[in-house]
Amino acid sequence: MPEHNVYLETHFGSGAVLFNKQPSKIETANDIDCNIVNLFKVIREQPEQLAKHIQLTPYSRQEYISSFEALQGQLSDLERARVFLVRCWMAHGGKTSDRTGWRHNVDSTTFSALPDWRKLPAVVLEATERLQNVQIENLDAATLIARYNKEDCLIYSDPPYLLSTRTKRHYAHEMTNEQHETLLLALNQHRGFAMISGYNSDMYNDILRGWTRISKMATTEAAKEKCESLWLNPQIIERGYIQETLFGIV
């Protein structure tokens, strides 16, 4: 990544990029989904309790089904984090927009679901230290981008991909075309470094004219190949940063 003192991730999601990068002096993880914000708050502040609760949670269809109703009710922050992890980890493709069915195995050749869940308590504990100095926000991405409009700030955006580039909804908080346009225009005004992920689209290529797009093939959980793109703003290219991109980190 380009050298930077400030790092902003506008759509934090699983946090894969932040967890794989070197810490910066100031780091902010933002997501509009309150359940995601709560999850990482609990990982940072109650890691041992959350890890224990996950360890005691059976990998079951009923846990997955119950999670949808439970998240609509009043829960403690700790229980909300546990239930949200159930909903994400036990769903096909980690989908949170609606029910996809309980992810499980019937033979040894398919994606391993249960061992993945059993590793989660250790993953939670490992993530805790990395989050200690990370600010957690819950605001509109374009608003934050304007606030962080500084030359020493690197912004990475991984928004829900344009619905026109995929066949199904995936997230609890999808984005309209207008919201994508607002996000792209805000990134275009950023004085520092900026990167955004997505599937190739006319909208992105038109608004991000002058940016550099690089692509790679990625394999989904369903063993299907998709071409993912990463757009880099001119400031990154001017600094000679092109070889080691996020595709080499994640």
Automatic annotation (TrEMBL):
Keywords from the UniProt entry: Methyltransferase, S-adenosyl-L-methionine, Transferase
A GO biological-process term: DNA restriction-modification system
EC number(s) on file: 2.1.1.72
Catalytic activity: a 2'-deoxyadenosine in DNA + S-adenosyl-L-methionine = an N(6)-methyl-2'-deoxyadenosine in DNA + S-adenosyl-L-homocysteine + H(+)
Domain of life: Bacteria
Stored InterPro entries: DNA_methylase_N6_adenine_CS, MeTrfase_D12, SAM-dependent_MTases_sf
GO molecular function (one): site-specific DNA-methyltransferase (adenine-specific) activity
PANTHER family named among the record's database cross-references: DNA ADENINE METHYLASE (PTHR30481), SITE-SPECIFIC DNA-METHYLTRANSFERASE (ADENINE-SPECIFIC) (PTHR30481:SF4)
Protein name: site-specific DNA-methyltransferase (adenine-specific)
